[in-house]
Amino acid sequence: xxxxxxxxxxxxxxxxxxxxxxxxxxxxxxxxxxxxxxxxxxxxxxxxxxxxxxxxxxxxxxxxxxxxxxxxxxxxxxxxxxxxxxxxxxxxxxxxxxxxxxxxxxxxxxxxxxxxxxxxxxxxxxxxxxxxxxxxxxxxxxxxxxxxxxxxxxxxxxxxxxxxxxxxxxxxxxxxxxxxxxxxxxxxxxxxxxxxxxxxxxxxxxxxxxxxxxxxxxxxxxxxxxxxxxxxxxxxxxxxxxx
Length: 243
Ligand SMILES: [Zn+2]
What we know:
It is built from four helices and three strands, in the order αααββαβ. It has 243 residues and is mainly alpha-helical.
C-alpha cells in the first residue's frame, strides 16, 4: 500500500517537475519577447529623433537664408545710393576714394550672394536628405509593425501555454499531500530546474548533478517505501521502469 502511494506521488512529482521546467522556459521566452518589443520601440524612437534634428537644421538654415536675403537687399540699396554720389564728385582724390569704397561694397555684396547661394544649396540638400529619410522611415515603420505583430502573436500563444501549464500544475499540486508538495517546493526553490530526476541504474549516478549514488540508495528508490533524494543536489530521485 505504502509502495503504491509513494509510486503515485513520484509520478505526480515527475509531472510537477516537468510542468515547472516548461513554465520556466515559457517565462524566459516571454521575457525575450518583451525585450525585443522594447528594442523595436527604441529603434523607431531613434529614427524619429534623427528626422527631427534634420528638420530643425533645415528650419535654422531657412531662417539664415532669409536673413541673408534681407541683408543683401539692404546692401544693394546702399550700393545704388552710393552710385548716385558719382555726380557730386569734385576731385580726383574724391573719385579715387569713391572707386575704392564702391569696390569694397561690391565685394561685400558678392560675398553675401555667394554665402546665400551656399546656404540655399544646403537647404536643398537637406530637403533631399529629409525626404529620403522619411521614405526610409515609412518602410522601416511598416517593417517594425509587421515584426511587432508577429511578436504579439507569439506572446499570446505563450500566454495561452502558460495558462494551460498553470492549470495542469494546480491539478497536480492538489493531488499531492501538502507536506510532499512543501518538500518539493523547498527543493525546487534551490535547484530551479529538474527538481525530480531519474537515477541511472546502470552507471549509478543522479541525472541531475551526475554524482554517484550507492547501490543501497538505488535499492531504496526501487523499494519505493519513501521519497529518496540525491545526497549531493537534494533532487528527488526515481528510476525509469525497465521495458
Ligand atoms: Zn544529484
